[in-house]
């Protein structure tokens, strides 16, 4: 009774309790990830949210540890950028039992009990893969003969790597001219992208017509390898990336890259909106999808000044 009286006492205001969010980030593997972290930290500040941040340095076990720590601290909401799609069933069930809503951002998961996460805020990676392939088929429609493609995959087992591969292959299989002759993970990093492209070139330099990289960072690393092999990236070997980060625009303006399929990291405001609703027990769509485009080299110089990441 006292609590009710106190709450209804005129002239007494209670500051709304500050929302506390635990955010388990993958790491800082790419330009995209850095922009994603900045967007979420800034949006938390703007929203007056207390953000507990954990950088897992690309290790799933560190993310699982961070989630257990957030649960122990009884945060209001958890945001998770799941490094890979599997291995989350147990810890997400622990969050569910603790009645802490989990919002997935930038990558999705595969779990038996899908009620253990509330919503996924991120892109349609299959469509991104289709867009990359559609650009390639259109850009090479007037050429003759086989189009040999090497593919730099993202982190093994990650949602974007799985689905960007799936979408790309779905489109190129419509035309037998297009063949993926080599495919290997570059783990979404510039360094690994360069290293793997060097190996591709050593084995098949003369046969490679196209590089399809699951993110721009690996494409930028591969561009260095192509140049060091005495070839012209963007001309001798077409270079296709995903993300549309600043580095890709710079490479396209320099004539070393041909196209980047946009994948926006600026998810902070949508995530804060979703977290407030989740904390209040309000309904949320299962997928809050980001709207994205495709940026070929021809528009890079004009578009570059408008870019926000
Ligand atoms: C996409 C994100 C991917 C980016 C990469 O939502 O998970 O991870 O495409 C990043 O650049 O490393």
TrEMBL record:
Keyword Signal carried by entry: yes
Protein keywords: Signal
Signal in keyword set: yes
Domain of life: Bacteria
Ranges of residues in domain Periplasmic binding protein: 21-282
Entry's localization field: Cell envelope
InterPro entries: Peripla_BP_I (IPR028082), SBP_2_dom (IPR025997)
Homology family: Belongs to the bacterial solute-binding protein 2 family.
Record-given protein name: ABC transporter substrate-binding protein
Organism of provenance: Piscinibacter gummiphilus
